[in-house]
Task: inverse folding
């Protein structure tokens, strides 16, 4: 799938790592170790000026890549890989991207 932005509800561990996700009427559980990084955003297009010392949250987005499974009737094949963004000031989460699942390679038929 592609990039988009949609609000989601995320439950985190005490250290701030995503643990559970409620999205589109379904409940998901994180099933693998999440990965976190920061990306620059075009703050100058959204803000008239940047107050001194306000880099985190204004300049950078916190991004998490997580793998989740639906809580009810989950199977290993049903894992989704998602990219989430957390607004550092408000703590609100947004779903940014759903990655296409990797398809298993087919073995060539031998005659």
Result:
């Amino acid at each position: 799938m592609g990039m988009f932005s949609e609000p989601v509800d995320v439950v985190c561990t005490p250290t701030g790592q995503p643990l559970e996700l409620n999205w589109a009427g379904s409940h998901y559980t994180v099933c693998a170790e999440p990965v976190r990084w920061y990306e620059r955003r075009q703050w100058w297009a959204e803000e008239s000026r940047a107050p001194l010392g306000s880099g985190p949250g204004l300049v950078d987005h916190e991004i998490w890549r997580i793998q989740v499974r639906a809580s009810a009737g989950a199977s290993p094949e049903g894992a989704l890989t998602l990219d989430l963004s957390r607004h550092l000031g408000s703590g609100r989460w947004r779903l940014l991207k759903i990655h296409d699942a990797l398809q298993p390679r087919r073995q060539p038929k031998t005659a």
